[in-house]
Amino acid sequence: MRAPRPASCSSALALVALLGVACRAAPTALPATTPGAGAPAWELDNPVRPLPAPPLGSPADFAATPWVTPEKVRLGRWLFFDARLSADGTISCATCHRPEHAFSEPTATSTGIRGQRGTRKAPPILNAAWPIYPVWFWDGRAASLAEQASGPLTNPVEMAMPLDAVVAAVGAVPGYREAFAAAFAGPGIDIGRITEALAAYEATRLSGNSRADRFDAGDEGALSPVERRGRELFFGRAGCNKCHLGPGYTDSRFHNLGAGWRAPPPGAPPASGFSDAGRSAVTLDLRDTGAFKTPTLREVSRHAPYMHDGSLATLRDAVAHYRTGGLPNPWLSELSKPIPLTAAEVDALVAFLHALDGEGFADTPPRSFPR
Asked: What percentage of residues in the chain have a pLDDT greater than 70?
């Protein structure tokens, strides 16, 4: 007997009804709008394309995001990959959010201008425009996808560009001035338009049509027996879906799982056991100490290492962390409890997590940029 279906494809679940998500077929290729004769190389390399058809299981609904238009997506794609938006011209959004790693990165933490190392790993930006709750970043400090897009631009360790400098750099490029006028139906460049274009591109980085999605849609052969066992554990005794729920496999909430905890020396404040305070730095609530947003599990095999600090090297390490109930600390989530799992059951869970790899996010950098 099957375990309960995830919200991505079960019409019986209220979450799907709330989000208006229906099971969808695999995406269909759509033609691009060919630039006119004599168009510059950057337009030929990055034509306006129709919005992608959401793959099976994705929560994407472009009717609910009318600010996402093909023209803004084209513009945002240039901006996302353009290192001219950083202070030293070496770092772009894609430096950390790498397409080949499902728009995350293969390192424990991010590296910004002048080789500076950050303290957090870049999370994947998949299906990011349709969260259950409108919060972005590991600590939830951004209230919109566009606000999130501005964060790395100004972060002194990442791209380190004051917002007025970003506007000036982009506005100094004639090709960008033309692209902004086309995308926003009128001339003018400001940080609102820049971040909206970046967010529009990010909104098209989708993930779905995984073997798990196809199984949920009725394809009994989409999962192997081991993967089916892993799925039963995920939605059953292991309780993974208490946090990794819905079509995005995330509750968009914040939980302390002990990641990054080191017991402080005698006499030191308990909170000093976390070098990164997490959500509490935003809410100023001590109860949120060490809590971080639940990441999506879509394409999870493609963006090791894991956790906000990249402290767990493999999926097996991540499952083992949950298996032990996390690292005990004063603010450990009540959901984090030891889970009795055999070695074979760990193998099954890891196999199911690999079955969440799908399609819809792939891209490569533009071959040329506006001049």
From this structure: 90
